[in-house]
Amino acid sequence: MNAPTPRARALARLQLVGCGVFFGLMAVLGRMLATGPVRFTPGQLSVVRFGVGAAASLAVFAVRPSLYRPRNVRLLVTRGISGGLVVVLYFAALARIPAGEAGMIYNLFPAFATVMALAVLRERPSGRLWLAIVLATAGVALLLGNGTFQLGLGWGEGAALAAAIFAAVSANVIRSMRGTDNAPTIFFFFCLAGLPVVLPFALDPWPGGLVPWALAVGMALSAFAAQVLMTEAYGALSVGEAASWLQLTPIAQVLIAALLLGEPITPVGVAGIALSVAGVAWATRLGSRAAAVPPP
Questions:
Q1: 3 state SS for 188-232
Q2: Model confidence over 188-223: pLDDT tens digits?
Q3: Which of 26, 143, 235, 245 could join 223 in a cystine, given CB atoms 3.0 to 4.6 angstroms apart?
Q4: Using CA atoms, how far apart are residues 106 and 132, in angstroms rounded to an integer?
């Protein structure tokens, strides 16, 4: 595959800006639905997200059938399974801890993805790269520990961290597939293969009400937009470079959570956000390569 043009790379960066905003909105709406008067369980939110995403994909394919072009079915299904675990774990975190904290932990996944990409390419991470990752982790500790660096790891934090690890796997699988499969097809299989993964977690009685369901559909559509934008961007950017731009996601998430949920932003939290974003951006910048998509 030929190297992407400067225009394609610029468009990919713009897509990741939109991706960060939509992912942040999705997380805040998920937090509202998981903790409000009418509550969805993490499994139910996951089923809504995949169901609406699959329906939106089928609608797109009905208008433009040529967009459905599955090639590497094995990796497409792998992406769906790992993505299903990411979604249910992240919603579980959002049900237990504030959206800003969940977002900061989850968005360590770009650094994890970069390290995985370096391993796939048989490169050795430098000492500077490991130092950058330590700085990013210290930023999360600063945010959650309120300056004491006493990071409490409960079920919510553990779920967000596990989601970040599976998201790193997904990022590398997506990058591998972008040489053979387009973004709409990858997203459709993400929903299709992810749905059986999350269904066992959605067996509780389902809530009712027009407003909660409207918010749930809005949450799923935000996820749809974010996921397609991110997948499209991976066609022009390396895992590391894309990860640098994905650091806009936790910033957007914290700001949207402050606006819609009233979650406070303290000076210590701002310092933690800045340190974490700087550390992860440095880590991913060190690992970025402007190369063609590697073969699957």
A1: HHHHHHHHHHHHHHCCCCCCCCHHHHHHHHHHHHHHHHHHHHHHH
A2: 999 999 999 999 999 999 998 999 999 999 999 999
A3: 26
A4: 17
